[in-house]
From TrEMBL:
This protein's record includes keyword Oxidoreductase: yes
InterPro entries documented for this protein: Ald_Oxase/Xan_DH_a/b, Ald_Oxase/Xan_DH_a/b_sf, Ald_Oxase/xanthine_DH-like, AldOxase/xan_DH_MoCoBD1, AldOxase/xan_DH_MoCoBD2, AldOxase/xan_DH_Mopterin-bd_sf
Domain of life: Bacteria
Residues in Aldehyde oxidase/xanthine dehydrogenase a/b hammerhead domain copies: 12-119
GO MF annotations in UniProt: iron ion binding; oxidoreductase activity
Protein name (Swiss-Prot/TrEMBL): Xanthine dehydrogenase YagR molybdenum-binding subunit
Keywords carried by this UniProt record: Molybdenum, Oxidoreductase
UniProt organism field: Saccharopolyspora dendranthemae
Length: 718
């Protein structure tokens, strides 16, 4: 199995991340952030900052660089400094440029800002009273046509057993190791921008729109990304400002966010409140599911965390279903996509409620889930293209020792031990992608696309699928990505990259073979006029063989280039698509201190074909660890003033090695070629889904205490 190709470069410090680029004459920008949650900036005194040592310029809404708001498939992107309105504490309101990072930072501290303050809404709890209907998320009610029901309430009336509870999840920051940054340099009318992202051609398009130039004038480069998770999906404030200021000053500009700035000058996961009601018969068959959600969002209402639509809509077979989604606009930092947007917090509520129903029914929680397994999403005619969730539970039960679980948990010395499970699910999606293949006269091939490898292993996967498509050993494949000058490669988001890019590689591979056979049989070629076939890098005709590199040399060609493009299509009218998984968690809660330790986790996943077990395993382990982190550690705390009280790694808790026990990952491997020709269903996000519920369910099994919010802390178990 191929190890990660970029691994040695990353662990030996040779991988050059965006901010590692240093250019002659480069200057440094440091962001000034707002210190009030809502109001209008009345004044910004920059006199002291401008005369501080090494300072070249200070940009503010009073003395700004002009930027136009771009709009892409991820929605409208906010651009900084364009007006004096402040809508959250920590909003970018200025940029100080100096000849060193330190001097820019020192001068930024000298900027005096005066505000006309306005009352700010910062509390999610208070804001719920004024919740709004979420844009593009209609309330939905599906009723059993044969039951003669007036509304979902009737279905609950008719249910012998009902669980109806409210759950809450906290605001999170992506906390990627690599902070957001940009190094911008103009050469004439052409901009080169080094900035971490999840799809370089999309950032290039955004920046070009913002600057009013043609997309062909902007080249965005990011061969290595130190974690993104949705937090680098949108073009960042450093990218916009470094590009514009570099043009204004005629010098390369570097802007790097500090760790503290990452907590407010980017976007994070919404907090949610979710009410889940489940009605069932005594055998545990669901009669009705209701999921009402509220999520926080920024004042611009820029993102909806779709917990109810993304989760209950697809999870279980039920004849009656109602979902609603409300947003709670607040004066807090923006929210955006974060690993498994919707499903991660949504599964905490739904999968906790299912566990509560199992307890109510005195039924094994795996058995309850199996009884309600769906063959198609409720209310849809389209069956799942492949679903092996039951097998995930069966395989997981055996390996995890689920049979040893008692409904009352057990004790081990001073520890109360419990086990919990949850379903994991994330839709299998594809995005349009184009891949180029260049066959070279030295017998090697370059496989390239503009998309990003934010640590997921896409580069390595491209090499493997490229080798397969060209029937060559992997050593002869050079994968390239992370450069908007390459063919447009989709977004590394939504767990789509392998299916999207992989399919395009296969199509490009077919085009490459067609091109080679045509060349080999063309006029003046070695096999002129003959039937030519291709295998393992060679062309065959009439018992003769020529390697493709030799063919190119014979024809005086250095290389041949082809491309392949794929996009989601007809399959969407035939099936529903999703990856599935079963999460198992064992926790130990200390009898006296109430400390919670997760001793073992196991995830068994149905993600279609697994291209590379090693990479897939580490991707899913990372996701599961994040789920544990959401369950026990992570929460951004916003003070009444709107200031984030724990915006640094000292106080925003993330798990360390000592917090993580055994993390097992297993696959049931059923390639899903109804979804795409590669057979991969996607596994970037599903790892985190369900884990928080499995932890809460295990805590309940161990202690008898049901905690309906995350993170779960010691205080909740006293
Ligand atoms: Mo993901 S939240 O699509 O990186």
């Amino acid at each position: 199995m191929t190890s990660r190709l970029d691994g040695p470069l990353k662990v030996t410090g040779q991988a050059k991340y965006g901010a590692d680029n240093n250019l002659p004459g480069m200057v440094y920008g440091y962001l000034v952030l707002s210190t009030t949650a809502r109001g209008e900036i009345e004044s910004m005194d920059v006199t002291a900052a401008k005369s501080a040592p090494g300072v070249l310029a200070v940009y503010t809404p009073f003395d700004k660089v002009d930027l136009t708001t771009p709009s892409s498939m991820l929605g409208e992107t906010w651009v900084p400094l364009q007006n004096r309105e402040v809508s959250y504490y920590g909003q970018p309101i200025g940029l100080v440029v100096a000849d060193s990072f330190e001097r820019a930072r020192d001068a930024a501290a000298l900027v005096e800002t005066g505000y006309q303050e306005a009352p700010a809404k910062t509390s999610f709890e208070d804001g719920i009273a004024e919740a709004e209907v979420a844009p593009d998320r209609e309330d939905l009610e599906i009723l059993d046509p044969d039951a003669g029901l007036e509304s979902i309430a009737d279905a609950f009336e008719a249910s012998p057993v009902v669980v109806d509870q409210t759950y809450a999840t906290a605001t999170q920051n992506h906390a990627a190791m690599e902070p957001h940054s940009a190094v911008a340099a103009w050469e004439g009318d052409e901009l080169t921008l080094h900035t971490p992202n999840q799809g370089s051609h999309m950032v290039a398009a955004d920046v070009a729109t913002a600057l009013g130039v043609d997309a062909s004038q902007v080249r965005v480069v990011n061969p290595y990304v130190g974690g993104a998770f949705g937090g680098k999906g949108k073009t960042s404030t450093p990218a916009f400002l470094a590009s514009a200021v570099s043009r204004a000053l005629g010098r390369p500009v570097k802007v790097v966010l500090t760790r503290e700035q990452v907590f407010t000058a980017t976007a994070g996961r919404a907090s949610t409140r979710q009410r889940v009601a489940l009605g069932a018969d005594r055998e545990g068959r669901l009669i009705a599911v209701r999921h009402d959600s509220w999520c926080s969002t920024d004042a611009a209402r820029s993102f909806v965390e779709p917990t109810s639509h993304g989760t209950s809509l697809e999870w279980y077979a039920t004849p009656n279903l109602a979902v609603s989604q409300r947003i709670v606009p607040l004066n807090v930092p923006p929210t955006t996509f974060m690993r498994a947007p919707g499903e991660a917090p949504g599964s905490f509520a739904l999968e906790s409620a299912i566990d509560e129903l199992a307890i109510e029914l005195e039924m094994d929680p795996i058995e309850l889930r199996k009884r309600n397994n769906s063959t198609a999403p409720p209310g849809k005619d389209l069956q799942w293209s492949s679903k092996h969730l039951d097998e995930c539970f069966t395989v997981g039960s055996q390996r995890f020792g689920w049979a040893n679980r008692s409904p009352q948990g057990r004790t081990e010395g001073d520890w109360q031990v419990g086990m919990g499970v949850a379903v994991a699910m994330f839709p299998a999606l594809r995005s349009p992608a184009t891949v180029g293949i260049e066959l070279r006269a030295d017998g090697t091939a370059v496989v390239s696309t503009s998309g990003a490898d934010p640590g997921t292993g896409l580069l390595t996967v491209m090499s493997t699928i490229g080798a397969e498509a060209l029937d060559l050993p992997e050593e002869r494949i050079t994968p390239q990505l992370g450069d908007s000058a390459l063919p447009p490669g989709g977004l590394s988001g939504g767990s789509t990259a392998t299916a999207s890019v992989g399919t395009a590689i296969q199509l490009a591979g077919v085009a490459a073979v067609d091109e080679l056979t045509a060349l080999a049989s063309g006029p003046g070629a070695p096999f002129e006029g003959k039937d030519v076939t291709y295998a393992h890098g060679e062309l065959f005709a009439d018992g003769e063989t020529i390697a493709f590199g030799d063919l190119l040399r014979r024809l005086g060609r250095e290389s041949v280039s082809v491309s392949g493009s794929s996009a989601p299509g007809e399959e969407l009218t035939k099936h529903s698509f999703s990856s599935f998984g079963a999460q198992f968690v064992e926790v130990k809660v200390h009898r006296w201190t109430r400390e919670i330790r997760v001793s073992r986790m196991l995830g068994v996943f149905d993600c279609g074909r697994i291209i590379n077990d090693k990479l897939a395993t580490s991707q899913l382990q990372g996701g599961m660890i994040w789920g544990l982190s959401a369950a026990l550690h992570e929460a951004m705390e916003v003070e009444g003033s709107g200031r984030v009280a724990n915006g640094d790694f000292a106080s925003y808790l993330l798990p360390v090695n000592a917090d993580i026990g055994e993390v097992g990952v297993e696959f049931v491997k059923y390639p899903d070629t109804l979804h795409n020709s590669v057979g991969a269903k996607g596994l970037g996000e599903i790892g985190t889904v369900g884990v928080a519920a499995a932890v809460a369910n295990a805590v309940c099994n161990a202690t008898g205490v049901r905690v309906r919010h995350i993170p779960i802390t010691i205080e909740n178990l006293l």
